[in-house]
Design goal:
The complex is a heterotrimer of chains A (244), B (215) and C (286).
Chain A: E1 29-33, E2 41-47, E3 50-60, E4 74-81, H1 96-109, E5 122-131, H2 136-150, E6 160-167, E7 170-173, H3 177-182, E8 185-192, E9 197-207, H4 209-237
Parallel strand pairs in A: 4-5
Antiparallel strand pairs in A: 1-2, 2-3, 3-5, 6-7, 6-8, 8-9
Helix pairs in contact in A: 1-2
Chain B: E1 2-4, E2 7-9, E3 14-18, E4 24-28, E5 40-48, E6 52-56, E7 63-66, H1 67-71, E8 91-98, E9 106-108, E10 116-118, E11 122-125, H2 131-135, H3 140-149, E12 152-156, E13 160-165, H4 169-184, H5 191-205
Chain C: E1 2-3, H1 13-24, E2 40-44, E3 52-58, E4 61-72, E5 83-90, H2 105-119, E6 130-132, E7 136-148, H3 153-166, E8 169-175, E9 182-191, E10 198-207, E11 214-218, H4 222-227, E12 230-237, E13 242-248, E14 253-254, H5 258-285
Parallel strand pairs in C: 5-7
Antiparallel strand pairs in C: 2-3, 3-4, 4-7, 6-7, 8-9, 10-11, 10-12, 12-13
The chains are: A alpha+beta (244), B alpha+beta (215), C alpha+beta (286).
């Protein structure tokens, strides 16, 4: 955020971004569900070059009895970046950022999972960033939500996320790494779209209140698009089913 | 299902069956087995404690089988050593006697005939959500499977099927394949007839019957 | 790995119901109104060995913040800037549920929230902290110590960090031209180049399951925090810019509540700024 930019113009006067997108355009999004054999649920999501693999195990018996709650399932969530996922190799040891994001992502999924159905169990959610190009936590939440659905874990709704950035004063949707690094703001948002409930909301950078409101609207439009792609991905897994 | 602002939202990924104006059913496509009282289950001994054993029943909760169930009489702690009567890995056919989410499910093997330790047969693991389809409406699919293959099978609710006896190893193989077909396409229309056909074709392939499929 | 907390302090049901009943009548257990913060007191320069320090009390929550300035090398991608490093620890003294050990996820989150609130708006002019360009700079370490937890550690920490920074003195240095050695001058100081003041403002969201009503309480006390289902923190600069947002907690926030949340947090932040100004002028005259 706010790193000295070498003289790159991140967006032209006509609103064309460095990768040719318009300000309110998502990157190409790809989603696949149920690709891992052993995990109870799994999903692979791409937002442009950001690539995320998510897996879910559970609800399952916890190892240690003190790690349970008597009236609901405990969620355990790990957000981790592979060492080769970033420009410079990242040490495999959890960084403070990964610690914070593991918490933020878990808290983005908690409102969606019907944890009261499985007391005294654990639901493990693993999110691995295979390639990082901006928006890893929102793509991560989106992938984790698909993996939870793939595992058959009852949920109030899917959770879909996208980030809004600001470059040269212009709000942009789904910023990539460069736009994030050299931009003035980065606002990741995730929601349960059917209820219009926000489950993840952060801001790095500076926005006026008016910009914040516009950015939130932009994020919600992006989220609705991601949501329909999620539903398509889930349906695709069972494409051979003709009729019940 | 959740009712929200006049819309009904499904909480799981599933197939919707509309059965009439006000009636519809959602059949989940995935999910783990959650025990219910009265379920028939097949469990594998995982842990032996002094007065009870834990069975893996493919659920997030372990099944408890008390010593008195295994011994068939009250246990005498000063004389009986449970590990002399049961080993890790033993397989039991049992009923869920009690389960209320506050404690692990309690199993019984004494309350009816046919329950108890399983010593022979082949165990097939399936996705628990497919069991209703493998049984079928009014046992229709189960009948097709047993009649057409001549095998003796027990289907447990927790996603385990015991194949007790088959006329020949070929019949056993056909049965397992048929189960896998049902598992991968559970909500296909007319599945019962398709499975009947499938079994017949497989029998012809193996020379178990002669000629084209007979219906 | 982040886990749903299993060791939170427990509130007896009748206490929770009492709090909710009061809320429906428009009051809070400590008789504050919905938009008031607790009493704030501060002492500065309590740690002689630190370059700056503050002990802040927000109600019974007590935060001790120490600022150290050390000479170091700049990061390769910012050769003409000093560095800001924020760390937070929850002392086991502060609560029966804090355990000794490496900072847990909430401490990491807290530090990063405070860090981002200051960094992104460039509250500290890091380019005024260069000693020898591309070689030697001042590194400013802000260490936040939670010593008593009675709710709303985030705002208390943010106020403590701000007051500590406002009272931090960095030694003046000169460079020996022949040896390129840095000479720290005795008894000559400059203040930290703080060009903007920033505070966080936190609300607790409490939902009454029976009625479905949602309440947003400013500067939650411990009990209010425990029965809340989510916290929402917005960082503001004095000129009303949003310099950080963090939703934390296991519930969600309805989109329609956002305007109310913005209003409540902005007003709360301005109240914090007023109080910080009061404290500063008292300290100056005192």
């Amino acid at each position: 955020m706010g790193v000295h930019k070498p003289n790159i113009k991140l967006i032209t006067e006509d609103g064309v971004r460095i990768d040719g997108r318009r300000p309110d355009q998502l990157r190409p999004v790809k989603m696949e569900v149920g690709l891992l054999k052993n995990a109870d649920g799994s999903a692979y999501v791409e937002y442009g070059n950001t690539k995320i693999l998510a897996a879910v195990y559970g609800p399952r018996d916890p190892g240690a009895k003190h790690m349970v709650l008597p009236n609901r399932a405990v969620l355990r969530c790990r957000y981790h970046m592979a060492p080769f996922s970033t420009h410079e190799r990242k040490s495999p040891a959890p960084s403070r950022r990964e610690i914070e994001l593991s918490k933020v992502i878990r808290e983005a999924l908690e409102p969606a999972v019907l944890v009261e159905n499985f007391p005294r169990t654990v639901i493990d959610i693993f999110i691995e960033v295979l390639n990082a190009d901006g928006g890893t936590r929102t793509a991560g939440v989106t992938a984790a939500s698909l993996a939870l659905a793939d595992a058959g874990i009852p949920m109030r709704d899917l959770v879909a996320g996208v980030a809004v950035g600001k470059v040269q004063g212009v709000l942009i949707l789904d910023e990539n790494e460069q736009e994030d690094m050299y931009g003035e703001a980065d606002m990741p948002v995730a929601m349960m779209p059917s209820y219009r409930e926000i489950t993840l909301l952060q801001l790095n950078g500076v926005l006026t209140e008016e910009e914040f409101n516009r950015a939130l609207e932009m994020a919600m439009e992006g989220i609705m698009k991601i949501y329909s792609i999620q539903k398509e991905a889930l349906k695709k897994k069972y494409a051979e089913i003709e009729e019940a | 299902m959740i009712l929200y602002k006049n819309k009904l939202l499904s909480t799981v990924l599933g197939v919707v069956e509309i059965r009439g104006e006000d009636e519809f059913k959602i059949s989940p496509l995935e999910g783990s087995y959650i025990p219910q009282e009265g379920d028939l289950v097949i469990g594998v001994v995982e842990e032996i404690n002094p007065t009870y054993v834990y069975l893996d029943i493919k659920a997030p909760y372990k099944g408890i089988l008390q010593a008195s169930e295994i011994l068939g009489r009250p246990m005498n702690p000063s004389r009986d050593v449970l590990s002399e009567y049961v080993s890790v890995g033993d397989v039991y056919l049992a009923r869920v006697e009690r389960f209320d989410l506050l404690r692990d499910p309690l199993l019984t093997i004494r309350k009816e005939k046919g329950l108890g330790r399983i010593t022979e047969g082949v165990l097939v693991e399936v996705n628990p959500t497919r069991i209703p389809r493998i049984i079928g409406r009014k046992n229709s699919m189960l009948e097709v499977l047993t009649t057409e293959t001549g095998c003796d099978i027990i289907v447990a609710t927790n996603g385990r099927i015991l194949i007790r006896k088959c006329p020949t190893p070929d019949h056993e193989e056909i049965l397992i394949r048929a189960i896998r077909v049902i598992e991968s396409q559970p909500y296909l229309k007319g599945l019962t007839d398709k499975i009947k056909e499938y079994i017949a074709i497989e029998k012809v392939k193996r020379g178990l019957i002669i000629g084209s499929s007979q219906t | 790995m982040s886990m749903t907390p299993t060791n939170l302090p427990i509130i007896p049901k009748i206490r929770k119901n009492a709090i909710l009943t009061l809320l429906t009548k428009g009051s809070r257990i400590d008789e504050r109104s919905f938009d008031e913060h607790r009493i704030i007191n501060a002492e500065v320069n309590v740690i002689p060995n630190a370059n700056g320090s503050a002990l802040v009390r927000l109600g019974h929550t007590k935060i001790l913040t120490g600022v150290k300035a050390e000479i170091g090398t700049p990061f390769p991608d910012t050769p003409d800037e000093g560095n800001l490093i924020v760390n937070a620890e929850f002392l086991p003294h502060a609560s029966p549920v804090f355990e000794p050990g490496p900072p847990d996820e909430r401490a990491v989150e807290l530090a990063r929230i405070i860090d981002r609130s200051l960094r992104d708006v460039r509250a500290i002019d890091l380019n005024k902290l260069v000693i020898i360009p591309s070689k030697k700079v001042w590194n400013i370490f802000i260490d936040i110590y939670v010593i008593d937890y009675d709710g709303n550690m985030i705002d208390a920490s943010s106020i403590a960090a701000l007051i500590a920074l406002m009272n931090t003195r960095i030694p003046l240095v000169s460079i020996d031209q022949s040896t390129n050695e840095i000479i720290i001058q005795k008894d000559s100081y400059q203040p930290v180049p703080l060009s903007k003041k920033v505070v966080t403002a936190t609300l607790a969201k409490i939902t009454d399951e029976n009625t479905g009503s949602r309440y947003y309480l400013t500067d939650p006390s411990l009990e209010e925090e425990i029965i809340s289902d989510t916290l929402i923190t917005i960082a503001y600069s004095e000129d009303g810019l949003l310099t950080g947002i963090q939703k934390s907690g296991i519930s969600s926030i309805p989109r329609e509540d956002i305007p109310k949340i913005l209003e409540l947090t902005r007003k709360l932040a301005m109240k914090y700024f007023d109080r910080v100004k009061e404290i500063s002028s008292t300290l100056l005259s005192g």
